[in-house]
Design a protein that fits this description.
By secondary structure, the protein is α+β, with helices and mostly antiparallel strands. It is built from five helices and six strands, in the order αααββαββαββ.
Length: 145
Amino acid sequence: MSEEFEKITCEQMEEFINLYRDEWMTDKQYFAASAVCIATKGAHHVGGDFKPWGTGVSVSKFVGPCGVSTCDGDLLTRIVLVGHKFGVRISIGPSGPGMIRMIAFTRDRSRCGMTGHRTMQEVTEKWNKIWPLELEFGGSHFHLQ
């Protein structure tokens, strides 16, 4: 169970995102679905019904012909940030024309590899070691930190 999960109760998540908890959802599934709702700015923006997907959840969302991105609609960025904040693995795949499927599972912060999930700080530290590069483009200056 992620460290963040222990700090945030399902009731607190429900107040924040207004997600109806289906009877089939375990605490972990509800937490994973809640993370998806936070990334999409609330349950009312998910646009589909959550389905069980092993120990996680799956949901399809209409995103239009442009898909998801880090800018001009920042859903991709929000998915990544929320995943690292709450220790939830959120994968994105195709679901239909103009749609994506998000599959979400809670992950254990104390592990790495296929069952763990890094914090945002750990990811930043890793990338600064791998790619300590500063970029300048069009007057913008960027350093991953």
